[in-house]
Amino acid sequence: MILKTELFPHQMEAHEKLRHIKIGALYMEQGTGKTRTALELINLRLNAGKIDKVLWLCPCNVKEDLKFNMLDHTDDIDMIYIFGIESVSQSDRLYLKLLDFVSCGKVFLIVDESNLVKNHFAKRTNRIQTIAQSCPYRLILNGTPISKNEADLFAQWYILDKRILGYNSFWSFAANHLEYDENIPGKVNRVLNINYLTRKIAPYSYIIKKDECLKLPDKHYDTYHYNLTCEQREHYEYIKDILLDNVNEFDSTTIYRLFTGLQQVVSGRKINCIYPLKSAPMFDCPISNPRIEALLNILPDDRVIIWCKFKHEISDISEALKNKYGNGSVALFYGDIKQRDRRNEIEKFKNGAQFLLANKVCGGYGLNLQFCYNSIYYSNDFNWATRAQSEDRMHRIGQTHDVNIADLCARSKIDERILSNLWKKENLSDSFKKELKNNRERLSDWLDGKD
Prior knowledge:
Elements: H1 9-18, E1 23-28, H2 34-47, E2 53-58, H3 63-71, E3 80-84, H4 85-90, H5 92-103, E4 107-112, H6 123-132, E5 137-142, H7 153-165, H8 170-177, E6 178-180, E7 188-191, H9 194-201, E8 205-208, H10 210-213, E9 219-226, H11 230-245, H12 252-266, E10 269-272, E11 278-281, H13 290-298, E12 304-308, H14 311-325, E13 330-333, H15 339-350, E14 355-359, H16 360-363, E15 374-377, H17 384-391, E16 403-410, H18 414-424, H19 428-438, H20 443-447
Helix pairs in contact: 1-2, 5-6, 6-7, 11-12
C-alpha cells in the first residue's frame, strides 16, 4: 500500500502509541482524521506480513463515502473489505460469509463508529464479537469513548479483548460498576469505580479532541424564531393534551410519540392520534408553511446544507426551493436515495447545486463537506451525538472558512425544549421523565420550553 498523504502530528502520535500492540481504540473526535490514522496502522502491518487483508465494519450509509475518503489517501484498497455494521445482524448469509472470511488468512478487524455496538445484548454486537475472535488484530474507531455513560465501554472492549477490562460477562461487569434504578428496569443511575475502567483502557487508547490538535475556523451559531399560525397553535395544544394524557413513564415509546407528534405540528402537519401516529399537510402548498417561509428568509447566497428530521420536510422544502431557484439547485441525501446514487448527489452539490437537503441518520456520518460552510437545522432530533457528528461534516480538516450554523425554532413550543437540551447535552427523554416524576402539572409548560 502506498499512502499519498502525510500524517498530521497528532495522527503520528496515535500511530506511535498503537503500532506495537495488536488491539487498540482511536477515540479521535470527528474531523481529526481517524481513517487516515487507521490506514497507517494497516500499512505498517501489511508491510510486516502480520496481516493480509482487512475487514472494515462501518455504518451502512457511509460505505461508499468511506471508500472515496480512503482513495484520497491511497490508490490501493483492494485488500480492504468494507461491510455495514447493521447488515451483520440483518443478514444471516452475510454473517456466515464473514465468519468464513476471517477464518482464512490473517485479518485486521476495524469497527468504525463503534458506538453502534455498545449494546452487549444486541445481535449485531454478539455476532461481531464472534467474528473478532478469529482476527489477530483489532481496532475500534469512535469520536468519544462513551455516548451515554461508562456502561458503553463493556461491549466495545469485549470485542477488542475481554481480558482488558477483566470480565467474562456483562453481569460481572455490571455487579462491579453499575447501580440500577429500583423503579425503572434497566435504567442506570450511577457508574461506579470509573477510575478502574479508565486505567484498564488507557494503555490501548488514543484520545484527542479537535481543539487539541487542529486550528480550525470558528463556528458561529444563530437561532431564528418564527410564529405558528393560529390554526397550528390550536392544533398543537389539542395534540399536546391528548398525547400527554397517554404518557406512561415506564414506556418510553409513549414519550417519544408525544415528542414526535408535537414536532410534526410545528413542522406544518396535522396529526391524528390513532396508533400509529399519522399526519397530513396542514397547508395547501409548502410556501404557505410559516416554517418554510422562515427558512427562505434566512437562506445565504452561498451553498448551504439543510438538515431535516422528517422525509416530508425534505419533499416540501425541495419543492419550494426548485420553484424559486430552479430544478438544478437542489441535491438530496436521505433514506429514499439509493446508496449508489448518493455519491452523485454529493457531487451535484459540490459542483453546482446551492442546497443539500439531508437527514442526519444518512448524512451525519462519514461525509466530507468542508467545501461548504453554511448549514441550517430545519428540524432537530433529540440526540446530541448525531448533532455534533452532522456539524462536523463541514468543520473538519480542510475547512478554510468560519462555519455558520443556524437553527429554526417555533416560539414557545417543543423546539425550544429540544434546543435547550441539545445545548446542555442532556437526553430529552431522561429530562422529561425527571419532570414527570417531580411535578406532572408543570409538564405542559416544560413542553413549551418554559423552565
